[in-house]
Recover the amino acids of this structure.
């Protein structure tokens, strides 16, 4: 959920002054991009893993404050609820060995967190939605003690005129409910993948990332249940979109697939941020114009499924990253790094300037593919490049895995090393055993005892064996 702020209440003057600083920083960024001042080096990789804390019975354990204090680790930070934390990796040059380094980083950090959580009678768990979480758990009593979270809750409901969130998700079953605070968002935990991109490639990378959202969410789906209801293969998608909606316009959902591709410049996204999305956190900061601190804070409150980010390299140079947000957490670190390999490889291959992929798949169809795959997973029927129709399961195996392999080879991976990661995806897709499929199979055999489901899932997750190799439920 981003950086901390110093205040929870704001005046009209704060909003007015923030808007002016946002305007100045947006124009400054435009000039930097036009002047070729942003870093244009080799791509780099990084990721963020949002995790749950659960007790011995698989129920949410609201102990992140104690855990964070015990860890005292800069790469583990709070999330919205007291039963969630976020793990961050150091960036790696995207080249041969980078996926292995990311996997090793996360493994060490995860194991450290698990050891400290055990001292609190808790365990770490990675899944898109915790099957045992109840609506009553998602309350302000369980909000993390950061000003940012309290202020977001207040500002979102101010824009809504105090009207509760109306959740309506129709999947295998139909869930409707009302909720009176921001905490529904805490039920959605993701694995966010970052790709640092040269400015000249930013438009294509942003658009290609949108296109790849459909296959990525299909292969990674891990969130079939919410509050005991069987809904979408990746229920996290409609839940997050509805959890922070603020009004009735096309821009009312702060979580969105967007309304079109970028055309000529990635600045189109930052311009849309300023023009269409009301400021939620008008924190005024005494920072140099070059840091674009207000622009970055505002961008951090618009959770596009694919989001451009402005960052700073260790040498102080400004760079652009594309953040891909559609993948859920879990089932294992190996599964998530395999998904990452698929994404990095396919995205790299689609940056080919001689193949304008935006012209081969209309934006409206890319959006339809994304929501179809979120709902139906690998069984979704999609329309792909040049109007070709396919079931996503066949498309991944026949076209997208070879595409990802070519991209990884462009990044310096050997066919053998690329094959290790992409082989995990291939076997998962051929078997159809995503995290969602495994959970549904377990429930079909054992009944709706979600506590036992979480306990068994956690036991298998600890092995880091990819889910397609897990024992039958």
């Amino acid at each position: 959920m981003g950086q901390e702020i110093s205040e929870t209440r704001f005046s009209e003057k704060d909003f007015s002054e923030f808007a002016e600083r946002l305007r100045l920083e947006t124009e400054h960024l435009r000039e930097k991009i036009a002047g070729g001042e942003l870093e244009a080096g080799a791509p780099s990789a990084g990721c963020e893993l949002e995790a749950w804390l659960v007790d011995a019975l698989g129920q949410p354990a609201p102990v992140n404050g104690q855990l964070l204090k015990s860890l005292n680790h800069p790469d583990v930070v709070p999330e919205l609820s007291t039963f969630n934390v976020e793990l961050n990796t150091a960036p790696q040059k995207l080249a041969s060995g980078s996926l292995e380094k990311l996997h090793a980083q996360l493994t060490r950090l995860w194991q450290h967190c698990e050891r400290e959580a055990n001292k609190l009678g808790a365990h770490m768990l990675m899944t898109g939605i915790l099957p045992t979480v109840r609506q009553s758990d998602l309350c302000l009593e369980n909000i993390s003690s950061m000003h940012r979270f309290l202020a977001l809750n207040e500002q979102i409901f101010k824009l809504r005129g105090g009207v509760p969130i109306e959740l309506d998700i129709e999947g295998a079953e139909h869930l409707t409910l009302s909720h009176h605070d921001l905490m529904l968002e805490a039920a959605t935990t993701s694995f966010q993948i970052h790709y640092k991109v040269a400015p000249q490639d930013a438009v294509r990378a942003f658009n290609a990332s949108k296109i790849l959202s459909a296959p990525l969410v299909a292969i990674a789906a891990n969130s079939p249940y919410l509050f005991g209801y069987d809904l979408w293969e990746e229920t996290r998608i409609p839940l997050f979109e509805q959890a922070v909606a603020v009004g009735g316009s096309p821009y009312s959902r702060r979580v969105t697939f967007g309304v079109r591709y970028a055309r000529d410049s990635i600045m189109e996204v930052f311009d849309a941020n300023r023009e269409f999305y009301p400021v939620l956190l008008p924190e005024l900061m005494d920072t140099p114009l070059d840091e674009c601190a207000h622009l970055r804070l505002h961008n951090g409150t618009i959770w596009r499924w694919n989001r451009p980010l402005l960052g700073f390299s260790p040498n102080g140079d400004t760079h652009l990253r594309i953040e891909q947000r559609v993948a859920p957490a879990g089932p294992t670190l190996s599964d998530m790094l395999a998904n990452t390999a698929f994404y990095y490889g396919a995205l790299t291959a689609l940056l080919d300037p001689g193949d304008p992929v935006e012209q081969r798949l209309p934006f409206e169809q890319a959006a339809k593919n994304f929501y179809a795959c979120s709902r139906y997973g690998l069984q979704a029927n999609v329309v792909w490049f040049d109007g070709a129709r396919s079931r996503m399961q066949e498309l991944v195996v026949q076209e997208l895995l070879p595409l990802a392999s070519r991209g990884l080879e462009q990044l310096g991976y050997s066919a053998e090393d690329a094959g290790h990661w992409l082989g995990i995806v291939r076997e998962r897709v051929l078997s159809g055993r995503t995290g969602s499929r495994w959970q549904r199979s377990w429930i079909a055999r054992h009944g709706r005892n979600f506590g036992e489901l979480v306990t068994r899932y956690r036991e298998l997750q600890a092995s880091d064996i990819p889910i397609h190799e897990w024992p039958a439920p």
